[in-house]
Amino acid sequence: MRGFPIAAVALALGACNAVADTKAAEQGVKDFHAAMDAGQYDPIYDGSAADMKSDLTKPEFAQFLGGLHGKLGAYKSGKTVGWHDNVDTGGHYVTLNRKVEFDRGPATEEFVFRIEKGKTMLAGYHVSSRALVTS
């Protein structure tokens, strides 16, 4: 029984590679913004995790992103200012906090990606910008 805690820690650490996980999440952000700017909301939804799909239907998701894009305009640039890579009994999640610039002004974004069987899937997206209430 003495070896079990060490084995459990080794398994937990082996399941989480922060560099690879954040790199995959950063690619997910690029893909998200490219699809959003192109009005391709369905592929974003179809490739998202069950977490996202349990909160919004596909039509609701398309309406949400369409409304955001209408208010904020096209994505111009952004950078990750914080991240968190977490594995627990609920799953493996990478969260990226970003400062971004859209055509109509600055915003902050939070992306939550679920990593499952080597696949990175959008599990949550939150955005905050004055442009959402002033334009």
Number of domains: 1
- What's the CATH architecture name? Roll
| DSSP E strands, number | 4
Oligomer: single chain
CATH hierarchy class name: Alpha Beta
User: Would you identify the CATH H-level superfamily?
Assistant: NTF2-like, domain 1
Structural class: alpha+beta
Choose one word for the global shape: globular
Average predicted confidence as pLDDT: 89
Largest sheet: 4 strands, antiparallel
**What portion of residues is helical?**
40-55%
Instruction: List low-pLDDT spans.
Output: 1-14
CATH fold-level topology? Nuclear Transport Factor 2, Chain: A
Question: How much beta, percentage-wise?
Answer: 35-45%
Helix-strand blueprint:
Layout (H helix, E strand, L loop, with lengths): L2 H12 L3 H20 L3 H6 L3 H6 L2 H15 L2 E14 L2 E12 L2 E12 L2 E10 L2 H4 L1
Antiparallel strand pairs: 1-2, 2-3, 3-4
List keywords for this structure.
single chain, 135 residues, alpha+beta, Nuclear Transport Factor 2, Chain: A, four-stranded antiparallel β-sheet, 6 helices, 4 strands, globular, disordered N terminus
What would you say this structure looks like, in words?
With 135 residues, this protein is an alpha+beta fold. It has one domain (18-134): NTF2-like, domain 1 (Nuclear Transport Factor 2, Chain: A, Roll). It is 47% helix and 36% strand. The protein contains 6 helices and 4 strands, in the order αααααββββα. The protein has helices at 3-14, 18-37, 41-46, 50-55, 58-72, 131-134; strands spanning 75-88, 91-102, 105-116, 119-128. A hairpin with a 2-residue loop joins strand 3 (105-116) and strand 4 (119-128). The longest helix is centred in the N-terminal third of the chain and has 20 residues, at 18-37. It is globular. It starts with a helix and ends with a helix.
